[in-house]
Amino acid sequence: MRNIYSNIFKVNKKNLSRAINYLKKKQLIGVPTETVYGLAGNAYSKETIKKIYVLKKRPFNNPLIIHYLDLEQLKNDVELHNDFYKLHKKFCPGPITFILKKKKNSLLPVMATANLKTVAVRIPKNTIIRKILKILDFPLAIPSANKSTHVSPVSSKDVFNEFGNSLKFILNGGVCKIGLESTVVDLTSQAKILRPGLISPSDISKILNKKVKIYKGSKFVKAPGMLKRHYSPGIPIRLNQKKANDNEAFIVFGKKYKKAKNIFNLSYKADLNEAARNLYKILRLIKDKKYKMICVSSIPQIGIGLAINDRLSRAAK
Ligand code: TXA
Ligand code: MG
Predict the structure, then answer these.
(1) Using a 6 Å cutoff on CB, does residue 114 contact ligand 1?
(2) Could you tell me which of 58, 54, 185 has the C-alpha nearest to residue 118?
(3) Ligand 1 atom showing the smallest separation from residue 120 Cα
(4) What does the mean pLDDT of the chain come to?
């Protein structure tokens, strides 16, 4: 019998070197990170970058995040400054992406950054992706491993469900520890959060010792991908509800909801980190169960709760 997951590989020495060979040959692979699974390719290869946009069906005006092993490697492509160094010292490697000015002599193809003069850079913490980055002599462009507008993947099977066999190689690093994408902070002028994540605005503002703005998506389009419908299971969603209609999947948070057929609890013990880890898994499960409507109870707007509510409200657009 044919194994439908014939392109998912466990992590061992042999498979890590296969992963590295794919990347050296300018091919794409699925990789785990601490936030969500990513679609990785050589960031310095125009041909590879184009493959990423095509496979994800991503609009070419939505730039990619470039992933580096460390500061030494990252400084080849972007201009660094004090605020960056402070945040780097505290949070890297980790689930935070910085928008910085691109260096004139950077080798990144303009397509990777959608013609912008800035680059989104991240130093991931996951040990598997770090082992890969350590061996390569180029950084990796790694967007989330989902088709454009879909929910991000948090397991290797989720990646398979997005791309099937059109992706030749997916490394299985288990379920992602955080389960939501990294915090994106724009450091090209006064620090501004473009996408909330585990590292919260107040965490950042404490380190910088100043107020940090939260970008609310005004007429000024900072990055097109930040505004459109996103993270969407493809089913209508109603937010901040107390009660669900019949036949609606009801996503809830905390103890006050009894177990029932239509109830999907993000965290029975009302733990926001657990809720973040469960969110995308539950959205995929609801879609698989063929529900036609989703409603969601209110979720506290603190810490990673900001990121959960951000993803839910974009999914609902
Ligand atoms: O946690 C993560 O960041 C994951 C894992 C795989 O590392 N990656 C990820 O990448 O979420 P992606 O491509 O799905 O999301 C990148 C976001 C997009 O919303 C994009 O618009 C924004 O970062 N972005 C990229 N470059 C930018 C830039 N120069 N200025 C503003 N926003 C940028
Ligand atoms: Mg994404």
Answers:
(1) no
(2) 185
(3) 26
(4) 94
pLDDT tens digits, residue range 67-126?
Answer: 999 999 999 999 999 999 999 999 999 999 999 999 999 999 999 999 999 999 999 999
SS3 158: helix
CA distance 168 to 185: 33
Which DSSP symbol is given to 226?
G
Please write the tens of the pLDDT for every residue from 273-301. Answer: 999 999 999 999 999 999 999 999 999 99
**Looking at domain 8-214, which of 1.20.1530.20, 2.60.40.10, 3.90.1010.10, 3.90.870.10 is its CATH number?**
3.90.870.10
Matching residue, tokens 């809720």: 275
- What confidence category does residue 220 fall into, taking pLDDT thresholds of 50, 70 and 90? very low
119 with 78: CB under 8 angstroms? yes
Length of the chain: 317
User: Which tokens sit at 46?
Assistant: 């125009």
Shortest-distance atom of ligand 1 to CA 119? 29
Angle at 95 between CA 123 and CA 93, to 5 degrees: 40
6: number of Cβ within 10 Å: 10
For the Cβ of 110 lying below 6 angstroms from any atom of ligand 1, the answer is no
Ligand 1 pocket residue status of 184, Cβ below 6 Å = yes
Backbone φ, ψ for residue 282 (5° rounding): -70, -40
Q: Is the pTM of this model over 0.90?
A: yes
E-strand ranges in 35-143 read 38-42, 65-67, 96-101, 118-122, 140-141
Q: Rounded to 5, what percent of the chain is helix, strand, coil?
A: 30, 20, 50
Which amino acid type is present at position 212?
Answer: V
Task: Give me the residue spans of the domains in the chain.
Answer: 8-214, 237-315
Contact 183, 196 (CB under 8 A): yes
